[in-house]
Amino acid sequence: MSAYAIEGVGLTRRFGGFAALDGVDIAVKQGEIRGLIGPNGAGKSTLIDVLSGRAPNRGGKVLLNGEDISDLTPQERRRRGMARSFQRTNIFPELTVEQQLRVASWAVAGADIDEVMDELHLTAMADVVAAEISYGDQRHLDLALALVGRPTVLLLDEPAAGLTMEESLSLARILRDLANRWHVTVLLVEHDMQVVFSICDRVTVLHLGRSLSEGTCDEIRADPTVVAAYLGTEA
Amino acid sequence: MSTIAHGAAATVRRKPLAGAALFVTTAVALAVGVALPWLVPTKIAMSLLAQAMFDALLATSVGFLILQNGRVSFGQAAFFGLGGYSVGVLIARHWVAPEVAVLIAIILPTLVAFLLGLVIARITGVAHAMLTLAVGQAFYEVVFRWRELAKGDDGMSFNLPRHLFGLSASGLQDPAVMMVLAWTILVLVLFALALFARSRIGQIAAAIRDNEERARFLGYSTMLPRALVYAIAAFIAAIAGVLSACYNGYIAPQMFHWSVSGFALIMAIIGGAKFIIGPAIGAVVLFYIKDYAGQFAEYWPAIVGIILVVVTLTMPRGVVGLAATLWKMRGR
Ligand SMILES: Nc1ncnc2c1ncn2[C@@H]1O[C@H](COP(=O)(O)OP(=O)(O)OP(=O)(O)O)[C@@H](O)[C@H]1O
Ligand SMILES: [Mg+2]
Prior knowledge:
heterodimer; A: 235 residues; alpha/beta; Rossmann fold; 2 domains; 6-stranded mixed β-sheet; 4-stranded antiparallel β-sheet; 10 strands; 27% strand; globular; B: 332 residues; mainly alpha; two-stranded antiparallel ribbon; binds adenosine-5'-triphosphate; binds magnesium ion
């Protein structure tokens, strides 16, 4: 097995003349939780889209456990153990919580859903239609849909978007516990530095479609180019 | 832990009950069907009810597409007409045994819809409505102009065979028999659709309707389930077409006309397309209003228009939606 669970090599994606991704290399080790940060428009969502097969691959390669999956559909990638969530809540509004988790589990050989429901505090609202649960619970459900079937690689695009600080940290803790317990490799896009530094093993900084820097949380905090390009503007 | 126990208990308690209710309702409805000849006073009333059932089947077909695929069709009459024409032409020409004619008349539209579904499943909204309209009208134009097939726009009468599936076929043109038959078929169709909605594939189809992109990222290919829903909807429309053609002993291009599709859609919306039984209720309600409005028949489209406006403004989930809301309020 490859040392890297998910790898992108020279990933490039253009919109017209503008390169949203400009030759990005990224490699995440098995079981690692990798943070992906950068200012608005840096290309974070685009990177997740290319890795997950939502956006066609126009340049570069995507490897999953060392295997080239660049030409696979999102469905085939899911069957090989890759799951993702979306920046904007992307659930099934008219299905109940339990129903949609069950649908998610059927796609991966009828995996167990009780543990995921329990971990994400969804059990009490199992029979409620998703459109009627609170926004915070919807974010939990969104993450739960990706977690069903214990994926090996999880690509999360701002799973805590719109949550309060407290809710974000709680969601992050749940995520870290599950990822460690199930040995899931996570690539996590997150705006909040406190969340990122609290759960990530390493961090990649994207800026203008390029990988600006990569390192441990301490290295990133101390990196002058990152501070100048991104962290400095935060505070 | 207590929440888990509670949640599990709730699911265990509720599901068999809902299932039992479905079986009981179906059994009662079937029994009512058998009793209909004693409940409906005159031949004319029986004939009206039989025809209302044809409308109900077609509206159910249109409603099912909305419910399970989230797609609005303006061309469902294509499959109604295809069913009717297949059975009429094949029986009139004695090309195949009448039983085979009936089977072909139901299977052919189902297959056509499945293949069409594979092509148009990705298309949504107005484009989808226009495309289905065009497909329906294309069929209409063909049978309208192709005189050798079934006398073009004059339409064609045909005689039923003596026997069909070992039974006397003349019953198909007897209002009492057809009324019971069509009622029974409608009940069984609604029952089957309810089972489909609870089945694995039904829930996957509902998920795809709800959020196709997420369904794909959960690992589903979305084309086949969508095409399957198109096929089932066409299957129901084809049954309506076969029944209608046999009952009248007559087929005409009008069966394919967009207005037939349009009225079926209106019935589905008035009844409530978010409910399996909604379109059938809408069809029956509208059918009897139409009959009652008899003398104003020439204003019928205007009357339907007004009903549609009133219903969409005052009861967005249709007649059945309103009934469901009232039922819930009663419980409070
Ligand atoms: N479909 C598209 N067409 C044109 N430009 C696009 C498209 N999608 C993204 N872009 C552009 O690509 C760049 C990167 O977008 P992306 O969504 O990946 O940024 P991001 O890092 O996720 O930002 P945010 O923090 O706001 O989510 C942006 O400048 C965006 O405007
Ligand atoms: Mg983004």
